[in-house]
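Student: Hello, beginner here. Can you help me understand the protein record under this note? Any guidance would be welcome.
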Amino acid sequence: MCYGTIAKTKNNNSSIMELETLVKQLAERLPKDDYPVLNSRKHFLIWLEYVLDESVSSMRGLFARLRQSESAPDMSTFSKANSKRNTEQIKNIFKYVNGLVGRKRKSGKHELVPFDSTTITLTTKLMWAEGYQQVKLFSGQGLETGNVRNELVVFGREHDYKYGKKLVGKLEEDKVAVMDRGFAGVDFINYCQENDKKFVVRIKNDWRLEFSKDNSYLCWHNKKLESYCKVVAFCDLETRKEFRLATNLVDNDLGEVTAEDIGEIYRNRWQIELLWKFLKMHLKLDNLIAKSCHGIETQIYMCLIGYLILQLVEIPKIFGNKLLDKLRFLQACMCKKTSYYHWFEELGFF
């Protein structure tokens, strides 16, 4: 075996050990034998198998894979655990691994945080009987740290506007929220102005504008607004669409913020759409297998945990550095095992 091949093997083993160490840290934060129904570690690792294993796409396919282990529960036990088990344990795991991502890549001052929501259609009749046809995941993403900010799971057809203040409520003063026009409104802008929350939000084109008192910039005219907010207008020459962006980034410690800066900030909002695309295409956010509110919420948080795990794991540079490259690399490593569940069972995680 040549030296280069040996080096690659060592790097591969290092990446595998890194994943094993990380999952062990997460599993050790859960009780090992907290019956009845199903112990927390098994519950967590079964969900991790479903989220990260691209060859599994249904609950029946999942348990066909798990049946090769004597310790794996049956499908009915797992379903019962999803409906009975509180989601707080999974949320605590999410907060822990999200903190690890934030510490790994620290943000600078005035980090941009795009916020948006994604809708997941509920197809099970059990959820329809409870009056829910869809669930929404609201979240932000720090563009420098890559971690998930102020996530919120909402069942039903609630409008985005109702949750704008909740999303930016816990945002630090030196962060800049970037949002689409679904969140724009008088109450939201007044809240941001009163609580010193920096924002760039798109507004509707039919809202009335006027010049500020010193004629230095356009502002949104509304009697209910407690203070003016600057408005920057752009035109897409190809589609002939106008974009109006309201912001309070005016004469502050950011220095001079030009119209081009505001436009560039808003372009970064597209990163949150790429997050939804990755979660739905590769981590099965759009393929809900749980049939209860607790189970659906657990699956959503497990998708986010899987996304954060991929950010923390390092793989050899020869295989790439994108999240999809990492997922495919781990999939190739896992093929030597029956599943992620069996892999971590061999290590004695439960």
